[in-house]
Amino acid sequence: MPRYALKIEYNGAPFSGWQKQAELPSVQRAIEIALDRLEVGEHQIVAAGRTDAGVHALGQVAHCETTRNWAPFRLQEAVNFHLKPHPVALVDVAQVAEDWHARFSAKERRYMFRIVMRRPPVTHEAGLVWQVKRPLDIERMRAGAAELIGHHDFTTFRSTICQAKSPMKTLDEIRIEEFEGASGPEMRLYVRARSFLHNQVRSIVGTLEKVGVGAWEPEDVAKALAARDRAACGPVSPPHGLYLASVGYPEDPFANSCND
C-alpha cells in the first residue's frame, strides 16, 4: 500500500488534542474521517508527536496509507476538501518509502511559544497567544533558559501523568526573541530537542515567565532543575500559546514539495 507523509497545520482550540479519544473531537480523528470519505474503510494515521488540548501546529507531520496510488497534490486537495469546516489543513503531502515512519524516523521536534505583553485584552489573536499584562525581561529569561540546555533529568519539568520511561532528555536549544507584533510587544520562545516529556515545554515557559517578571532569579531555574521534584517547577503556561512548529528528519520528505 502506498504510504504518504502529511504536513499538517491546525488550530487546536476546538480539539481535545491530537490523539483520538472516544466521543471527543481530535485532530487525528478529523483527518481519518476525511480519508474514510476518499476510500471506504478504516484509516489510521500516525503522528510525529501528540499535542494536548488547545495546542496548535504549524508543521505537525503524520503518515497514512491508502489503497490507491494518489498523486500527492490530489490527495492533499481531496483531504482538505473533506476536512471542512475544521481548522485543519494539509499544507504538504509526499509519497514516502513503506518503512518511513512519522514518529520513529524523526530526529528532532521544534516548538514555538508566543507571549503577548499588554494590559488590554487581546482580541484578534485571542486563543493564539498567552497574554501577560506586565513586560518581561528578555535577558533574565535568556539567562534562566541557558541553565536548561543539555542533557538533564527533567523530572521537575514534566507532568505527573507523563508516561515516558525516563525523565532524561537533551534540550538542544531555547531561543528567545522579542519584537513588535500586530497585537503589541510579543515574545517568542523556540525550543528544539529530539523528543520532549509531557508538558515539558509549557513547564519551562511558565518557569521562565516567573524569571521575566522578576519573581525568580535566573539561577533559580538551575535549582529547580536540580531538585528533580515537580513541586519545584514554576506554573505551567496555558496551551493556547504553544505551537508544534516543525519536525526534522534525516532527509526532508517534503524536499520536492507537491506545492512547488
Automatic annotation (TrEMBL):
<protein>
    <recommendedName>
        <fullName>tRNA pseudouridine synthase A</fullName>
        <ecNumber>5.4.99.12</ecNumber>
    </recommendedName>
</protein>
<feature type="domain" description="Pseudouridine synthase I TruA alpha/beta">
    <location>
        <begin position="145"/>
        <end position="250"/>
    </location>
</feature>
<dbReference type="Pfam" id="PF01416">
    <property type="entry name" value="PseudoU_synth_1"/>
</dbReference>
<keyword id="KW-0819">tRNA processing</keyword>
<feature type="active site" description="Nucleophile">
    <location>
        <position position="52"/>
    </location>
</feature>
<dbReference type="InterPro" id="IPR020094">
    <property type="entry name" value="TruA/RsuA/RluB/E/F_N"/>
</dbReference>
<dbReference type="InterPro" id="IPR001406">
    <property type="entry name" value="PsdUridine_synth_TruA"/>
</dbReference>
<feature type="binding site">
    <location>
        <position position="111"/>
    </location>
    <ligand>
        <name>substrate</name>
    </ligand>
</feature>
<dbReference type="GO" id="GO:0160147">
    <property type="term" value="F:tRNA pseudouridine(38-40) synthase activity"/>
</dbReference>
<dbReference type="InterPro" id="IPR020103">
    <property type="entry name" value="PsdUridine_synth_cat_dom_sf"/>
</dbReference>
<dbReference type="InterPro" id="IPR020095">
    <property type="entry name" value="PsdUridine_synth_TruA_C"/>
</dbReference>
<dbReference type="GO" id="GO:0031119">
    <property type="term" value="P:tRNA pseudouridine synthesis"/>
</dbReference>
<dbReference type="GO" id="GO:0003723">
    <property type="term" value="F:RNA binding"/>
</dbReference>
<comment type="similarity">
    <text>Belongs to the tRNA pseudouridine synthase TruA family.</text>
</comment>
<dbReference type="InterPro" id="IPR020097">
    <property type="entry name" value="PsdUridine_synth_TruA_a/b_dom"/>
</dbReference>
<feature type="domain" description="Pseudouridine synthase I TruA alpha/beta">
    <location>
        <begin position="9"/>
        <end position="104"/>
    </location>
</feature>
<comment type="function">
    <text>Formation of pseudouridine at positions 38, 39 and 40 in the anticodon stem and loop of transfer RNAs.</text>
</comment>
<keyword id="KW-0413">Isomerase</keyword>
<comment type="subunit">
    <text>Homodimer.</text>
</comment>
